[in-house]
Every structure is written in C-alpha cells, then in structure tokens.
Amino acid sequence: MSPRQTIDSIYRSHSRRVLATLIRLLGDFDRAEEALHDAFAAAARQWTEETIPANPYAWLVSAGRFRAIDHIRRRTRFDAARSDIADSLYPEGEAMETAEGPEIEDDMLRLIFTCCHPAIPAEARMAMALREVCGLTTEEIAHAFLIPAPTVAQRIVRAKNRIRAAHIPYEVPGKAELPERLAQVLRVVYLVFNEGYSASSGPAIVRADLASEAIRLGRLLLQLLPDPEVEGLLAIMLLQDSRRLARTDAAGELVLLANQDRSLWDRGQIREGLALSANAMSAADVGTYALQAAIAAEHARAATADDTDWRQIVMLYDLLLTASPSPVIELNRAVAVSMRDGPATALAIVDDMLKEERMARYHLAHAAKADFLRRLERPDEARQAYETALSLCQQTPEQAFLRRRLAELGGKASR
C-alpha cells in the first residue's frame, strides 16, 4: 500500500476521532476542522513508507494542534489578545498528549453529547452529529433525511453558533443528567452505526470503522448508564454487525439476507446480542430499541432463511409502529408482510406509502415495490420501479444490484 493509500485509509478510520480530540483541545468546531485538514495535508507531505508513524492518531492530533497554534500566533500581529488563546492551548514547556488514555477514548462520546445538547434546536442535532461524528457531506445528510442541502447547511451553521454563543461544555454530563439526555444520544449512536452498516453513498456497502465505533460507544454508554434501551441498542448493533462478512461476495457485490452464507455470521456477536436482547425485552417498560433488537434476534436465530419466523417479526413490527411510527419502519414491516402474506398485500402497503413526497424520493421504497412486482411476475412494472430506485440510489454496490435485477428482467439501466 502506498503512503497515499495509507493516508486515505487512516482518514476513513481515524479522522472523526482526531476531530473529536482536536475539538476538546482547541475548544472550537471550525478551528478543529481546519486543524484536521492541516494535519492530513502535513501527513501527505511528510509521510513515506519508512516514516509512517506507529501511532498515526497521536501524530495527527499533535500536528493539527501545533498548526492551529501557529495560525493563532501568526494572527497576533493583528490582534494581540489572541496570543493568550495560543498560550492557553499550548503553554511553554507543556508536553503534547499522545497516549490514547481514557480521556481521549471518551472524546467521541463528548462530541455526541455536545451535538445533542438541549440548547441546540432539535432539527439541527441530527444533522450536526452526522456531519461531525460520521463525516458525511451536506449533500449526503440531505439525501438521508430527504430534505434540501441548503436546509442542512443552515441547520449545521446554527448549531455551531449556538454551541459557541451558549458556551456549551464539551463533556459527558454527570449521571444525574444522563437519563434525560439519553434518548438523543442513543439515536445518534444508532445513526452512526447505520451509516457504517449501510453507507448512504460511495463505493462500499459497509464502513466498518463507523460500525465498530458505534458498538464501542454503545458499550461505553452501557457502563455509564445500565438501561434496557442501551442494552437494546447494543444488541441491535451486535446482531446486525454479526452479518458483516456475509453481506458482500468476493467481488464486493451486495448479497441479500436470504442468500447469505450464514456460516460466515459472527457467532460470538450473536450470542452476546441475543443475551442483551433478552434482558431488554424482560424490562418492565419495553422500548423501541428492545423491539428492534427482538426483530434482529429472530433473524439471528434462524438457521436458514426458510426457518425465519415471519409471523413473529410482523407482530414485533406492529408493536414497534405503535410505539414509534416511522415510514422506514412501515417499509420494513411491508417487506416482512410480503414474506408472511405474499407480495400482493405488501405491494398495496408500499403503493400507499409512495403517495407521500418524502417516501417517493426514497430509493429503498421503490426497490421494495420492484421486488414485489417481480415476484408477482409483472416484469414491465417491475422494470419501471427498479429504474426509479436506481435513479435515486447513491451507493455503488446497491446501484450494481439494481442493474443486475434490471438485466434479469431484460431491461437496460439508465445510469
């Protein structure tokens, strides 16, 4: 692997953690983002095959911090007051932190709690978290939420301004505050995992770095606050991530759940996930993450696709929709209904959903419709639905899968 490829790989796996630590050290989101880019630019100039550091994370944090200090000190000729800022960031003689101790390990959690602070408008928290924690572009976030990109950009700017103006602390709150802040944080961790489990765009289905980081954060949250919903979320992530190696073939092509080689599933993750799921479902109040974990558990317990208990899964989706109505959950339920009652019943559900503008822009809704039509042996309508799904899809492996389906139906992909 060339130094350039190594740097690209490190950027994918480490950049969010480097940013989280730089925010703590520099005390400002924009300054930290500038420092992050400066650090990777310095790595591109300086690293060779012989000089790639043993601890790239610590090197990048150090480089970013030093460059931020240099920028501030160069500006002091115009604003003498800023020299105090530089001195506070790196007092004379202070040693740079390089060890990955507990403080640095918790920086990602600090970042999530900051993005989810109650002082930030609710509609901005998720956009801010996806930008800063996952590193998604404004366009990718807009696609994920089915809203215009300028709206996302405005929300992120407002969130940063609120953090700065309200002096929101960059910290994990005390235990007394954790319960009331937990729901938003769990949602962000799940968003991080989902982006890792099924990337919203790009050349790969899975971003293993994000999925693994979300699981690590889930474990840390469970230590901070033992709670059935935390157990449920960690169970979902473990059970879904257990299928990672089976979700693509040797060529990187998407493999559907029904066709996966289940011998590749991680049995250790499944055992841990099933135990956590059982604990979450035995709680006095069963929450939405516990229900989603129970659905994942049904898939994990099935030795073959034919052994899947679709009646139980539909029942769990019914409970989940009652507890937390969502068009995505409704779409997933429709897929389960198609397996229990047949594709005609599910097609009627999805056709009704597609009347809503947001769902009409969601490629998976059209892909589900296309599959139901294919199974009903209505090829012309199926081709049209696959074409629509392909026009909306931004992930390369999913695009390839949709093209294969079109080819099987004798159609030509438009892109």
Explain what the structure shows.
With 415 residues, this protein is an all-alpha fold. The chain has 21 helices and no strands. It has helices at residues 3-26, 29-46, 56-75, 82-89, 102-105, 107-115, 122-132, 138-145, 149-165, 178-197, 208-224, 228-241, 267-281, 288-301, 310-323, 327-341, 343-353, 357-360, 363-375, 379-392, 396-408. Helix 15 (310-323) runs antiparallel to helix 16, helix 16 runs antiparallel to helix 17 and helix 20 (379-392) packs antiparallel against helix 21. It is globular and about 70 Å long. The two termini are 32 Å apart. Mean pLDDT is 88; it is low at 89-105.
Distance between the termini: 32 Å
Shape: globular
Order of helices and strands: HHHHHHHHHHHHHHHHHHHHH
The helix count comes to 21
- Give the fraction of residues assigned to helices: 55-70%
Q: Summarize model confidence as the mean pLDDT.
A: 88
Biggest sheet character: none
The whole-angstrom Rg is 23 Å
Main structural class = mainly alpha
Strand content: under 5%
Tally of DSSP β-strands: 0
What kind of assembly state do the chains in view correspond to? single chain
Low-confidence stretches: 89-105
